[in-house]
Amino acid sequence: MFDKLKRFLQGAPPPIAERIDDPILGTLTWSEEDDAWVSSATHSGVDFEFQISGTPEPDKTLLSHATDILRRKDEFTAKVLAYVKSEGETVRSLHSYRDEIAGLRIERVCLFWPNRPDDGMISLSGGRDYRQWRCDYIARKPQGLGFDS
Hints:
The protein is an alpha+beta fold. The protein has helices at about 1-10, 60-70, 75-90, 100, and strands at about 20, 25-30, 35-40, 50, 105-110, 120-125, 130-140, 140-149. An 8-stranded mixed beta sheet has the order 1-2-3-4-5-6-7-8, covered by helices on one side. Strand 2 (about 25-30) and strand 3 form a beta hairpin. The longest helix has 18 residues, at about 75-90.
């Protein structure tokens, strides 16, 4: 019990380095702003970034999940964009955004929680009028399309 309290008061340990080279995900850079490790969208032509939690290094289970996504990138992308399009067509409150939703693309896959390695959030680019689109990613499936403005 005292170990948990001590860790809470001390905070997470600092990252071991500013950059870490992962053999599959490429270079992961520590982002102070995101308080997480961020990959490059250009590595292996993935076209989106990963944001992975963990200190002093990226969490191994979250790295493994990101690697799984990268290995089946085309299938993952198709599934997410099909879900997004479906939400635009079936969710009544989103009907007026259908054209905008059709142009959304995956910007970042956020894997935040080591204790919930199959959950996260997907940020989408292409929103208009300052809308930041996103959907939850629960049990490795997109859910709950929405935006912040």
